[in-house]
Amino acid sequence: MKPSATVRITVTVNGRVVDRVVPAATTLVDLLRSHLGLTGTKFGCGVGDCGSCTVLVDDEPALSCLVLAAELDGRSVTTIEDEQDERIRRLQQAFVATAGLQCGFCTPGMILAASRLPPDADDAAIRAGLVGNLCRCTGYSKIVTAVRRAGRRRVNRDTKT
Amino acid sequence: MTTSDLPELAYACPRDLGEAAMAIARPGACIYAGGTDLLVALTERRPWARFVREIVDVKRLDAATGVQQIGERLRIGALVTAEELASNTLVRREAPVLAEAAAATAAPTLRRRATIGGNVTTPHPAGDVATALLALEATVEVMDGSAVRDVPIAAFIAAQAGTWPRQQLIVAVSVPTGRRGAFEKAGSRSSFSRSVAAVGVVMAEGGATVALGGMRERPFVSTAVAAAIAEGRPIGAVLAAECRPPADGFVSPAYRLRLAGVLIARALARAGRR
Amino acid sequence: MTQKRNLTRLRAVGRSIPRVDGDAKVRGIARYPQDRPCAPGCLHAATVRLPVARARIDGIDVAGALAIPGVVRVLRAADVRGTNRFGLLEPDQPVLVEGSVRGASDVVALVLAETERAAREAARRVVLAYTPESPLVDPEQACEPDAPVIHPERTPVGRHTNVVAERAIRRGDAARALGRAAVVVEGEYRTGWVEHAFLAPEAGVAERDEHGRLTLYVATQWPEQDLRQAARAIGEPVEGLRIVQQAIGGAFGGREDVSLQILLLLAAQATGRPVRMVWDRRESIRGHGKRHPFRIRHRLGADAEGRFTAATLDILTDAGCYASTSAAVLDNAMAQACGPYAIANVAVTGRSVYTNNPYTCAFRGFGVNQVTFAMEQQVNKLAAALSIDPAAVRARNFVPSGGKLATGLEMGATRGLAKTLTVARTRARRRVLPGATGEWRTGRGLACALKNVGFGFGFDEHSTAEVTVTRAGAIVRIGAAEVGQGVETILGQIAAETLGIAPRRVRVEWSDTATAPEAGSASASHQTFVGGNAVRGACELARRKVEAIGGFAALPAGGISTLHTYHAPRTRPLAARGSGRHVFAYTWSTCIADVAVDMTTGRVRVLRVINALDAGRVINPKLFEAQVEGGVVMGQGYALQERCVVRDGLPITTGFEACGVPTSMDAVTRIETIAVELREPGGPFGARGIGEITMIPVVPAITAAIHAAAGVWVDALPASPDRVLAALESR
Questions:
Q1: Cβ separation of B188 and C658 shorter than 8 Å?
Q2: In this structure, which CATH number among 2.120.10.80, 3.90.380.10, 3.30.70.270, 3.10.20.30 belongs to the domain A6-78?
Q3: Does domain A86-160 have CATH number 3.30.300.20?
Q4: DSSP per-residue string spanning C59-105
Q5: pLDDT digits (tens, 9 = 90+) for C156-207
Q6: Deepest of B14, B99, C233, C613, by most Cβ within 10 A of its Cβ?
């Protein structure tokens, strides 16, 4: 096993398998934005302070600025551009309906982070779950409302079936 | 259209401890686990990370995973994350000070990456998990060549003082079971904040062990404070003598000391009630 | 002109339609400057800055930088073809520094390379020989005879070359009146630097468009002003420059000054190639201005019934290394320094001085936050001293409609102010303050504020809108920057209402200076008013044309277009007697805050905020509420935890956490917004502008609540745990 300056990864991004060779010092946010042209994931600080770069890795929220692309071989990544994810879509609708966004820069990361909270999470749990995602515009109130409503719609849907 | 600002690096991903030992012996190699400290330090070109040319990703090392009870100790793999520590039934029951520290640190996404091994080795005055481990008088299983040694955590942290490179692979951390304890912290904001002061208190037959974070260059155990508590003396003056609060321009040293005193009292009260 | 339609039943204005840019933003397809793909041949730029705030540059060696593969060029001051100076009020800021560095934002050189990595690496390899000089960091010392002169080339305007602006307002005889007052409250109030912390760091691309215009793809509050400054600096006619705005990731005043715009245009001009630059968070914090620190010495006198008889204030504010809009901030602060009250005897002196600290600039509130904190705290202290209810004291002293503020400014209708007080208190009476538990004590505090809408003070404020109406709907072109506040949506609603069509048939185009007429800055809470009136005027003209033609169905294929420029009412510059109409509109607000104070650590939790605002007619209730909530949390942050710490002239808080930006768990969870809608006579459909007032009274309401809870006044911001605890311990 020798160190290598580049890494080869086969990673599933939004359901599509992607095969790439990238420099070792490539973070996941670089891979998404620069190599794959998926600019929905934002670069807010680069050091894990703001959450704007949040995506899902193997279905769990992760800060893509602090994950190396090298770690993604054989894994799956979901970004805001995923149009199949039911939970993301429901949150998108809720954010627009409740005015849970203003400048919108934190929104993709916020939605990704919220997408894996328990759907019946109460406001305190939602705030705790999103504490790593900063918003400067909204004061968080309508974000919490949007997440709660999106969750409730899923609970309602689940209990109906 | 790169946006991250990491220096050029090589990447290695050892499959077992033997490969890991060889990898980290290479010049410029640095252990990479959760990356929540290392990647930030590399991006910001912090002095301690400037030597790094090679990232050694240790996340495939099975020997460094898992939480098991072995007799009267818990063996916690170095790769166990803060999130796992906070939610693990064994840790919550047998070492509550550690579960509390892990739950209080950072934010959920960071907790899912930050490892116990990483927190022990991060060169920061505060380290919530490290503070709790000090209070537990944990031992650290460290790779030394091809062998594994047990090192008391206080000695391990002290030996790191002033020097990095992160070239000692921690395999696991071992803590005693059944110790009542509590962890308290206060940051510069009420959530998602590095500790301005952190306190880990563990009750044992001989009295309390008190560990402090944010009060010196690295977290440490204060026997003087514990003695003052045991003898019922006020701890203010002892704290002032024991601590060297960093003058970082945010919070006055005087406030840090007051805060530490309050947190110690709270942690003692809760630990005592357990 | 008279309206023939019945306006009491509005169909677009007053409705909470979803914001029109929401869909693109939630899907991640809205493009911020960092998202713009690189054109072929695009170069990447990286700045070279000194690690000190003040130094003489003795030499620059770029050989090491040029040796890095992919590095194309290193631009220096000599490469600036026009006048190497820009600035919103005074052109005192160099594009690229030569000679001396004055502060954190200074850029010494710009490296251009084929890749971002090479550019950044090369920037690190530029060797700078410099002689550090002792920075001037204390504004109190800026006018000492031996103080370092920050801008030796500048013609002095005050007692010392380091004075950016000096003002005095005198009415009546304050000293005498204070001497005869039944009670005098005295205090010294201090506020520090604060970082805007908008989430999107600065980024941009400059390239020539198909017409040869140097075009910037960037996010900015005032695109035409950027271009005017750029034209002068790089020696290009302004018609040869263009901005195409990208989505703007927050601004709050921090994108009003030029940051990287001129550097990018310079680089594209010099190389003939597209140039891209992206700043990380640390560079962003260095690269733009900060909120002004204020020191206010305040004396307020009243009679035994609590009627204010006199106030004297001495204000000192730190302009930092460049003038930016500091003189205007001082004007604004001076004019509103005594709050929404009538006081017969007033003496206010103010000074804004250069230092080597970060330059200070516009930030949501523009100086009114700081003076309101001081004044409202004084009023609350006075009320306590006289054992009079703080609300009653205020009501007793509110400036009446048609009256003059203490500082002499003529007011129009002011009924809204008392109304916000009444509705806020009525609501608060229905909210029980939780009792004390453990170490926590609770308390409730109240404060009022006013804020000017529009720049005022003689500034020629205008906005132009062009409307094209077709059978399908309308396109409104107006260069009003959508910074997140919702102006794109609001202006569309105004257009729809005026034209009598559904909002979904209106599209607002705001982003291209080549096609969208100048609307003025997205600042001073004024785009709803000034931009809104421009849109309304253009739509009114269009509507009449449509009626004359015989209705929408009769329109020709290409539709019809109209253009309208709205000029805000004339205002007068601030004068020594402060008399006259300096501002054309005001908003008012009363805030009531409930807090809990941990008496052992000094930590403060905000439990509830009631915010009653006179917004005039609310165009979009949901977006209005969203703005208020955002302002409340920004006010909470300013009151309790935000600080940009500066050491030797450089910011050392280089990230969000260090700057204390509130998280979801810090933020107050119960925010109640009450809109008092007393129509603003000159506003579109009676609307005003509320972007800034949302945060202004929140701060003194919180500090008053701290006093109610803990028995201490904290006269410095932020009222952080250490300050609160220190106040508790010195009781």
A1: yes
A2: 3.10.20.30
A3: no
A4: EEE-HHHHTSTTEEEEE-GGG--S-S-B-SSS--B-SS--SEE-STT
A5: 888 899 999 999 999 999 999 999 999 999 999 999 999 999 999 999 999 9
A6: C613
